[in-house]
Amino acid sequence: MARTVVALMLREMATTYGRSAGGYIWAVLEPVLGVVLLTVLFSMALRSPGLGSNFPLFYATGYLPFAMFSGLANKTAASIRYSRPFLAYPSVTFVDALIARVVLNVLTNVAVIAIVIGGIFVIYQLPGPVDMTSVFEALLLVALLGSGVGVLNCYLMTAFPIWEHIWHILTRPLFLVSGIFFLYDLMPAKAQDLLWYNPLIHCVGLMRRGFYPTYEASYLSRAFVVGVALTLLLAGLALLERNHRKLLER
């Protein structure tokens, strides 16, 4: 199984990022441009960000976890379609395809986050310390949530192609309601009651707790995020286990 997963990962690395450094450079530049855009737009309208005084750090700690979730969920959802030619071999299973995509995309995103935020600390000479436990927990929750959503959508999008279009429409508002450019704590009570049920709000809050020592994010619930993620993951795995042969024949 391990050899199969590694082989699938190497194939995706070659097709997604190419055989030159250009593909990997773009993997870093894309989130950097996102953070720069948010920084420029909001620094012109606000005197200071929601936390601290550094705009790039505030938006990076919100945007990068969101981008990791979105990219991981979308890549995982396409696992069967992407690896369909290899799934015809008895030694390659749909679980191998899922694991390969999840592991590669998690490692890539964690590396990108480390490079971007590390660069911000160096460029702006920001003081420490960083609570690495909170940062690690936040990224772990994002990885688990993205995997859960991706695995369930892997079945739904393969079985019902129209679901992919519906999903993209339904999730467009996530960028606006996941705490990327605002603090949950500062929202009106009625808005908080609704936003709390967005698991990404908890992931972003935990991520920011790691970089802002005075920020408690008392609202966040790891158990809620884990519960949602595991429910989606187990449901997706059960559906794929039962129907993956039919999906491959479509």
UniProtKB/TrEMBL annotation:
List the PROSITE patterns: ABC_TM2
Known InterPro entries for this protein? ABC2_TM, ABC2_TM_bact-type, ABC_2_transport
Compartments in which it is found: Cell inner membrane; Cell membrane
Would you name any one GO CC term?
ATP-binding cassette (ABC) transporter complex
Per the record's keyword annotation, is Protease included, yes or no?
A: no
Q: Could you tell me the keywords of this UniProt record? A: Capsule biogenesis/degradation, Cell membrane, Membrane, Plasmid, Polysaccharide transport, Sugar transport, Transmembrane, Transmembrane helix, Transport
Membrane topology reported for the UniProt record: Multi-pass membrane protein
Give an example GO biological process. polysaccharide transport
Q: Which domain of life is it from?
A: Bacteria
Q: Any stretches that span the bilayer, and where are they?
A: 21-45, 57-74, 110-126, 138-160, 166-187, 223-240
GO MF annotation, one:
ABC-type transporter activity
The chain positions of domain ABC transmembrane type-2 read 22-243
Instruction: Please give the chief subcellular localization of this protein.
Output: membrane
Similarity-based family: Belongs to the ABC-2 integral membrane protein family.
Official protein name in the record = Transport permease protein
At the highest ranks, the source species' classification is: Bacteria, Pseudomonadati, Pseudomonadota, Alphaproteobacteria, Rhodobacterales
